[in-house]
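Q: I'm writing a short methods note and want an example of a predicted protein-small molecule complex. Could you take the sequence and the SMILES for zinc ion and return the bound structure as tokens? Please keep the output block clean; save any remarks for afterwards.
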Amino acid sequence: MNLRQLSFLTLTFSLASVQAETLHKPSKSIEWPQNQRAAVSLSYDDALNSQLDNAIPALNHYNLRGSFYLTLASEVIPNRLPLWRSAAADGHELGNHTLYHPCSKSQLGTDWVKPYNNMDERTREQMRDEVILANSFLHAIDGQSKRTFTPPCGHTQTSDGDYLNSVSDLFIAIKGAEENLPEGFSSFVLPHGQSGDELIEWVKNEAADGGLIQIIFHGIGGDHLSVSAQAHRELLEFLSNNRETYWTNTYRNIMTHVNQQP
Ligand SMILES: [Zn+2]
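A: Understood, no commentary inside the block.
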């Protein structure tokens, strides 16, 4: 990865990572499969080497499953395709994060977005075409047809409006736009440099009210917006040791459960 690519990726979620977004939980609840207090979705965005090197081995060690939102134009895809494929075979989710990771240059801190990847100049139809092709690419890797989506940078405004409605039929769920969750039932954090204890403390606090806890990682022990491999391992060990309290699973499996609720 060259420096330009690095800076492109480093700033991908810089705005969103400034603040962990936490919403108050309503009284309405969803029952998790073994009556756990909360569901935990561990996501890993942007198809990074450190995820293959550090995150997946740790997840497998603790017998936990995560969701990997692949930017399919990343060179890490062709360079290490067998590893992504075996991650899927191990039960991890390969999710859609588009081909080119377009973001809006009109948003603050997005000087790094290449002009041809400017969401402001895309149309909804273009985004749908890109997302469909990304789903086809993912299907060729893992053979799956049920898919979830994380919008790059969380930006969804194109030149002719918000594109999420144009792609919602392609997915069982979209991160941050969950249709079947009670309002305020989900909380998000985008870690950057936290210790294991800090990550665990955040999960404990969020779980007090139940709901769906979503941790959106990027680099693990390397790459951008990273946490150390040790901090990541400590969180996994905690989740592994407290399975009666936390249902950690792929976002696809969690949202399948949610969508089946009456
Ligand atoms: Zn991203």
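A: Remarks, as requested: Residues 1-27 have pLDDT under 50 and may be disordered. The pocket of zinc ion is lined by residues 12-13, 45-46, 97, 101, 152 (CB under 6 Å).
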